[in-house]
Amino acid sequence: MSKYDYNLIVIGAGSAGLVSSYIAAAVKSKVALIEKHKMGGDCLNYGCVPSKAIIQSAKILSYAKHSTDFGIKKMSYDFEFSDVMNRVHRIIKSIEPHDSVERYTKLGVDCFQGEARILSPHKVQINNKAITCRSIIIATGASPLVPKIPGLDEIDYLTSENIWNLKKLPKNFLIIGGGPIGVEMAQAFSRLGSNVTIVEMAPKVLQKEDDDVIDFVNENFKKENINILTNHKAVEVKGKNLICEVNNEKVILEFDEIFIALGRKANINGFGIDKLNIKTRGNGTIEANQFLQTNYPNIYVCGDVTGPYQFTHSAAHQAWYASVNALFSPIKKFKVDYSIIPWATFTDPEIARVGLNEQDAKKQNISYEVTKYDISDLDRAITDSKNKGFIKVLTVPGKDKILGVTIVAEHAGDTIAEYVLAMKNNIGLNKILGTIHIYPTLAEANKFVAGEWKKKNAPKMILKFLKFFHNLMR
Prior knowledge:
- By secondary structure, this protein is an alpha/beta fold.
- It has helices at residues 15-26, 41-45, 48-65, 81-95, 101-106, 180-192, 211-223, 312-328, 358-363, 379-383, 412-415, 417-424, 429-433, 444-456, 460-473, and strands at 6-11, 31-35, 109-113, 116-120, 123-126, 129-138, 142-144, 172-176, 195-199, 227-229, 233-238, 241-246, 249-254, 257-260, 264-266, 299-301, 343-345, 350-355, 369-374, 390-395, 402-409.
- It has 3 domains: 6-39 and 100-144 and 265-328, FAD/NAD(P)-binding domain (3-Layer(bba) Sandwich), CATH 3.50.50.60; 152-262, FAD/NAD(P)-binding domain (3-Layer(bba) Sandwich), CATH 3.50.50.60; 349-456, Enolase-like, domain 1.
- The radius of gyration is 25 Å and the shape is globular.
């Protein structure tokens, strides 16, 4: 085509689509954003925002229940579950303007509500109208993965999309899946008063974490009366009972509500990629090269619909590459960088990760040195009565270069930011040790773990000479 209606059409207004549109508008291109359901996508409406809202309410309740830890003999509390859920929806409404049609229209984005259909590499249909463009970005996200368990479709099961419609606290709350979503909701609902059971087919929950992290979670959840059933395969649902297989025996678990937390599947149907034969991977995500191009050079993809990471921040990260490449290729294009991707599981304490952990390093045959610092020794954590957890740093043997960090602690998702910056800019533990950290803060733990590394790697010959020198000077 010699002329297009738009430089860029973005399909999907979740994190990836919003950031793509924002960048395109910021560099003064003409961009159209199409969303068939809700602006803000999964993160705002069903994922990050509502889950963190209910987690915080449950955390406040936990503080009240454990007031003696803070020198308060007794705290009375009274709450209705429906009020907690109303707060969740108020918070969604409070954040909605950040992702709204009004905001993005003011930024210069043409926003369309309706179902998009890609007719050709340069043409998209929306509401019976065809619009043309130089490039397309697919950012359609993902949806809850629901297993084909016999009988499940005969009941009203819960997923991350409809759990926020609950008005009554379930007495017996059964969660299928021991990944991050499953464990976060397990702790929140347990603190709110549900009898919670996690059913996990694998030998352990949070399988991507090291054993010391999993052991910490198991012990913590046991204290909170959360029942974790690993090696349990869900085989059938009969009414309000889940039948599981364990060592060739059947176990029946009763529930009031059942929550499916088995991950997410890419949204690839209904908008025309099949007609264009856009390639997908075996796991159902859209295939993309290192520039986030599909098999059509002008059709790009970013976010959960392509992976490999399904985080809001990684979707936004990909969106920068997709939008810049879509707008400026072939003049200039950039390879997407996955070298430093942090994430967190928002249990209490939180679990934060960046780079390699021990099981990753072993799988990849990467040599490493471990330095661990116990949060129980940190002054600020002690004053807050939150002195449980640890920081574990993997470094190149004999060097201060950071390969990866795992933090299990209060506000771990915030504390790890220093390591993300350090790894991004090739800053080692020596420079973190030499950086002033405010006292008393949780961030001091980063300096202390660097100090532990320094002790282990202190030059022995120089220390012997220094001992001789100081003896001489006395």
